[in-house]
Design a protein that fits this description.
11% of the residues lie in helices and 32% in strands. It contains 3 helices and 16 strands. The chain has an 8-stranded mixed sheet, with helices on one face. It has a 6-stranded mixed sheet with strand order 7-5-3-2-1-15, with no helix packed on it. The chain has a two-stranded parallel ribbon with strand order 4-6. Helix 1 (119-125) links the parallel strand 11 (105-109) and strand 12 (130-134). The chain starts with a strand and ends in a 12-residue tail after the last strand.
């Protein structure tokens, strides 16, 4: 699987067979310019402008924004309900976690989850290989809560998302506190938007920090 970060919570997951899934595309008001991204399907964790900008995608992809099991060209996608805050959605509403079974790996995209994972939710989620988790706080869990989620689910690889970058116009924290606090993990700062992951190369207790792909400066893949 090749994974590309476009900023905020937007990733392109591409299987070894060339199936492309885009997660939570964000509108230009976030500071990220997404456009003409080719994808077979798009998942949207909730209906906020920074997570459902499907106009960024070219063609007519399958749009997935609900719970339950979905299949896109052989890739199984499961939506699991959660909340955008710690008050069962009373502050910011619902949030959808999506789990992707791709190239013999289970990848979990947390969306804008606003709470930690209890035993009941962990049982619904099951085993996770790669965790895409927000760390910026304010609108989501912060870096401490993100590490709590990781400690509960015990993924082999954690990729932080939804944090402040030079282009981000959303009021959230940057990645530095997360890096400092995740001191028991192997931290890999790739300085590029893409990473290739296979089940054999995942390793254990790894954090991958990606740079983001700025579509205003480079062509979409």
């Amino acid at each position: 699987m090749e994974i590309t970060w476009y900023g905020h919570s937007c990733f392109l997951l591409e299987s070894s067979d060339g199936v492309r899934i885009l997660t939570d595309p964000c509108a230009p008001a976030t500071g990220y310019e997404l456009h003409d991204i080719a994808a077979d399907a798009v998942t949207c964790s909730h209906a906020h402008y920074d997570h459902n900008y499907v106009e960024a995608v070219s063609g007519t992809p399958v749009i997935i924004a609900d719970a339950g099991e979905h299949s896109v060209k052989g890739i199984r996608i499961v939506g699991i309900p959660s909340y955008h805050d710690e008050a069962c959605g009373q502050k910011r509403g619902a949030n959808m976690i999506y789990i992707f079974d791709i190239d013999d790996m289970r990848v979990m995209h947390c969306g804008d989850i606003g709470h930690t994972i209890n035993d009941e939710l962990a049982a619904k989620i099951g085993h996770i290989d790669v965790l895409l988790v927000p760390i910026g706080g304010n609108y989501t869990v912060d870096y401490r809560q993100a590490l709590d989620i990781s400690n509960v689910l015990k993924p082999r690889v954690v990729i932080p998302m939804h944090y402040k970058t030079p282009d981000c116009m959303v009021d959230i924290c940057d990645v530095a506190p997360f890096i400092v606090t995740a001191k028991d993990c192997r931290i890999h700062r790739l300085n590029q938007p893409e990473a290739t992951l296979t089940r054999e190369s995942l390793g254990e207790d790894r954090v991958l920090v990606l740079d983001y792909k700025n579509c205003s400066r480079t062509n979409s893949i």
